[in-house]
Amino acid sequence: MININFINKSKYKFKYKIIYKKIVKITNKILKINGKTELSIIIINNFQMKEISKKYRNKNSYTDVLSFPTNYKKLKEQIGYNMFGDIFFSWEEIEKKSKLYKHSIKREWCYLFVHSLLHLIGYNHETKKEEKKMNSIAYKIMDKIKVNRNV
Questions:
Q1: pTM of whole model > 0.90?
Q2: Could you report the per-residue pLDDT of 114-125, keeping only the tens digit for each?
Q3: Which residues are within 8 A (CB) of 67 and not within 5 positions of it... i.e. 6 or more apart?
Q4: Which of 5, 59, 90, 91 has the most crowded Cβ, counting Cβ within 10 A?
């Protein structure tokens, strides 16, 4: 069972709930993560994102997405299921980035979710090796949902 808590604190009309559940299902299958999975998606505006970025990253700037993982493996031992964490999206930055990269809005929302989900699970891209591994998984997931750079 997959439970995604969607919290929309913006005026943006989010329409990717179904594909996000599919992304989690595919990710869990690829990474062999079993059991109930839960996470939260919070959609906010640039002002709210800047405040969160300042508070938790000590950066006074906008960003499109921030992930807050829980160390789900350790937590699963205590609560019995996979509680991945929270992902905050700034819909304004996502719209800007989709235009900048010439991607569809759908592609941008999906890719950023896959990328952030992998961060919640424990993947990073601080070294070239980590980046290659993380991107390999992300592109595999994007292929499975049939959302590429042209969609």
A1: yes
A2: 999 999 999 999
A3: 85, 86, 87, 88, 116, 119, 120
A4: 90
